[in-house]
From TrEMBL:
Source organism (scientific name): Leifsonia williamsii
GO MF annotation, one: glycosyltransferase activity
Taxonomic lineage: Bacteria, Bacillati, Actinomycetota, Actinomycetes, Micrococcales
PANTHER family membership: SULFOQUINOVOSYL TRANSFERASE SQD2
Name listed for the protein in its UniProt record: D-inositol 3-phosphate glycosyltransferase
Pfam family, one: Glyco_transf_4
Annotated keywords: Glycosyltransferase, Transferase
UniProt superkingdom: Bacteria
Domain named Glycosyl transferase family: residues: 223-375
InterPro entries per the UniProt record, alphabetical: Glyco_trans_1, Glyco_trans_4-like_N, Glycosyltransferase_grp1
């Protein structure tokens, strides 16, 4: 009905918000293969697709360093690759030179003049960017993917010093986080852990998110019992527990295990599989292409995640987006994703027998009940859509108030000692 006053009563559409110039500070970025690197890549690419100018600052993947354009996830962005050194206790890690972190940050910030700096860790690159961005009055958003408890494995420190190292590392991280206007981490449980470890308050829980359309749910009845693990083959993943669990499964199941990923424990675990007499039932693929990874998810029957140090677990979300039931350790953030009895099962961390029992319970389900678990995985992971994650960070970059995306509630986690 026309407005009798002759004026249009429809409120005007809000003016489009101008694109931002964003510096993404990363201590790890592809070609590195880990959850933090993948998240930074996907977030950066998603921001570029929305019209923002993204500059990634990360260690060079080789001795060649400098500034150039790189393609990630089908889009291009500017990469500032810093001179780096290889850390030989780790199988691939390279790190930017710590004593150059502030000088590198000054050079890049003065050249790019960003609206916001988003640091993905506080170790080297993030530390320098946070310090120099604060001096220039540039908004800082910080995301934590790091647990010093995991880093200490590669530090070469004697065990009696490791607990002290962890306390110092968290205290040091607090200095960089205090410079940020907003601090995030992938789950509410991880946020509680970070607050307990550092004394911070108001940490946002923002899922790393995934694009579920990149994965193929397959409800075709399986002709074999395939267990899949995807991730870094390192100590905190507790893959020895998974191998022991496979030996405890009934021989009648003829279960096969596929381990996708590389890491410093690969050779040790291959030797362990031979010692346990299951080498013919375990496949170590090493690193694979994205397409090969998607195929591995699609052909599996169940996904196993025995790790006790997951702040979220992108691999578990990818498995769920592929309609896989999941058996995971009841530790850290995994209960956010795996709802016991709904889309899989949680097992007692480190307990190979309990893991074997939970895997057997999934592998012996009638197809109708297995499909119920598979559909539940799809339903739960739907709340972790990457587009929602990108929108939340856009608001944080602009200094707008945000409500943490609701993904799942989980019991509180005790603060570290």
């Amino acid at each position: 009905m026309p407005d009798p006053s002759g004026t249009n009563s429809t409120p005007p559409a809000p003016a489009p918000k101008p694109p931002l110039t964003i510096v993404m500070g990363c201590d790890t970025f592809p070609p590195d293969v880990n959850g933090a690197a993948r998240f930074a890549e996907r977030l950066s690419a998603g921001l570029v697709e929305r019209g923002h100018d993204v500059h990634v600052v990360a260690p060079a993947a080789s001795r060649t360093h400098g500034t150039w354009v790189e393609e990630h996830e089908g889009v291009t962005m500017t990469a500032h690759r810093l001179r780096s050194w290889r850390w030989y206790p780790h199988d691939w890690l390279r790190f930017a030179l710590p004593w150059m972190s502030k000088a590198n940050a000054r050079r890049i910030l003065d050249e790019v003049k960003p609206d916001v700096v988003h640091i993905q860790s506080h170790i080297v690159v993030g530390r320098g960017l946070a310090a120099e961005a604060q001096k220039r009055g540039i908004r800082i958003v910080a995301t934590n993917h790091v647990m010093p408890e995991n880093i200490v494995e590669f530090s070469l420190l004697p065990k009696f010093l490791q607990k002290t190292f962890v306390k110092i590392a968290w205290r040091d991280g607090r200095k960089s986080f205090d410079r940020a206007e907003s601090v995030t981490t992938p789950t509410r449980r991880a946020a509680q852990f970070l607050e307990g470890a550092t004394g911070l308050r108001g940490v946002h829980a923002v899922s790393c998110g995934i694009d579920a359309h990149n994965y193929t749910p397959d409800f075709t009845p399986r002709t074999a019992n395939r267990i899949l693990f995807v991730g870094r083959v390192t100590g905190e993943k507790q893959l020895d527990v998974l191998l022991n669990a496979v030996t405890l499964l009934p021989a009648s199941l003829d279960a096969r295990l596929e381990i996708v990923g590389g890491g410093d424990q690969l050779k040790n675990l291959q030797t362990m599989a031979e010692t346990l007499g299951i080498a013919d039932r375990v496949t170590f693929t090493g690193y694979v292409s994205d397409e090969e990874l998607r195929q591995a998810y699609t052909r599996a029957t169940v996904f196993a995640m025995p790790s006790v140090a997951e702040l979220q677990s992108i691999a578990t979300m990818e498995a769920m987006a592929s309609a896989l039931p999941v058996v995971a350790a009841d530790a850290m953030a995994l209960p956010h994703l795996v709802h016991d009895g709904e889309n899989g099962h949680l097992f007692r961390p480190g307990d190979a027998q309990d893991l074997a029992d939970k895997l057997e319970s999934v592998l012996t389900l009638p197809q109708e009940e297995l499909d119920t678990l598979k559909n539940a995985s799809l339903r739960i992971v739907a709340s972790h859509d990457i587009q929602r994650t990108i929108s939340t960070f856009e608001s944080l970059y602009r200094g707008e108030p945000v409500a943490d995306p609701v993904t799942d509630a989980a019991p509180s986690v005790p603060a570290p000692e």
